[in-house]
Write a structure and sequence with these properties.
single chain, Metallo-beta-lactamase, Chain A, six-stranded mixed β-sheet, 328 residues
């Protein structure tokens, strides 16, 4: 072989050019995007349109907040779902368009949990709606990660909406007596509930209801009393066209643990025994009636059914449908 340095200059130039033509061009690696898809998912319930909205996910210290179960049992239960503590907990809300009213059930944490969350308004817009279009906000309870999103920059995030919650929850979280009797770690929950509700109350747009009465709040949506996690914790039963959806709030916090062991409670439960009894009753009802469930803290979009398996339950996620308007 003749060394390249001995080739005539013209021949060397032709040879190098032809070699370059057959080699792939060097390219910089595509930069990673590191953002998630817009957090909304849509389905139809009869004639009602239901949109699941993500407010984000936050680090949930399962091993330190669960009660009625020891740390080793927590780890074993999580491992069966290929999880380990701490777990990323979804914060989900649900938008129901009845055709006459736009109803938002829960609002996420807003700014109260820091940069992990507060994504609900952006996802609402990505889903095709504006906050000004929301007519009614229904809160399952007044904990930070459900009520915080009613405010944006200290103002009403939903300026045309009426906000409603069970009277028992309003009486507890908005009264000084409740704060005085609660554990110290819940003190900020009372402050955030008061601050969130105040602008709506001043505008005459905060209206508690009697959850135990179960009367329709709008046609097709009625409260389901589910006390224990908080005094007035409420689910909402949404029905149209022979189909039913139970929006159950915080009935289940960690599906990998509490579906198999409904008696496991949380240090944030106001009345742990009652919370466990409520969970047991609603899981049994959801399985027996084959209710579709919308869950605040099951992995987004938090829509599915529960099936009874022995003494526990299994979560069956809703099958993905690319076209929710398709009548099949």
């Amino acid at each position: 072989m003749i060394p390249l340095r001995f080739l005539p200059p013209l021949l060397l130039a032709v040879l190098l050019a032809s070699t370059a033509a057959v080699l792939p061009a060097a390219r910089a690696a595509a930069p990673q995007v590191r953002t998630q898809a817009p957090g909304w998912y849509r389905m139809m319930l009869g004639r009602f349109e239901v949109t699941a909205l993500s407010d984000g996910s936050h680090t949930f210290p399962v091993d330190t907040v669960m009660t009625g179960i020891d740390a080793s049992a927590v780890e074993r239960a999580l491992a069966r779902s290929d999880l380990r503590p701490p777990v990323q907990g979804s914060i989900n809300a649900f938008l129901v368009n009845t055709g006459r009213q736009l109803v938002l059930i829960d609002t996420g944490a807003g700014s109260l949990y820091g940069p992990c969350c507060g994504k609900l308004l952006a996802n609402l817009r990505a889903a095709g709606y504006a906050p000004e279009q929301v007519d009614l906000v229904l809160l399952t309870h007044l904990h930070k990660d459900h009520v915080g999103g009613v405010l944006a920059g200290g103002r009403r995030a939903f300026p045309n909406a009426v906000v409603r919650a069970a009277g028992a929850d309003a009486d507890y979280w908005l009264a000084p007596a409740g704060r005085a009797q609660a554990p110290d770690f819940l003190a900020s929950f009372f402050d955030s509930a008061r601050d969130a509700v105040a602008p709506y109350a001043r505008a005459g747009r905060f209206r508690p209801f009697d959850a135990a009465a179960g009367a329709e709040l709008v046609p097709g949506i009625r409260p389901v009393a589910a006390p224990g996690h908080t005094p007035g914790h409420s689910g909402y039963l949404v029905k149209d066209g022979g189909q039913a959806l139970l929006v159950w709030g915080d009935v289940v916090h960690v599906a990998a643990i509490q579906l198999d062991a409904p008696g496991v409670t949380l240090k944030y439960d106001t009345d742990p025994a009652r919370a466990a009894a409520t969970r047991t009753a609603l899981l049994e009802r959801a399985a027996r009636e084959h209710l579709l469930v919308a869950a605040a803290h099951v992995a987004f979009p938090g829509l599915g059914h529960v099936r009874q398996d022995g003494d526990g339950y299994t979560w069956l996620p809703l099958n993905y449908e690319a076209d929710p308007a398709d009548p099949h």
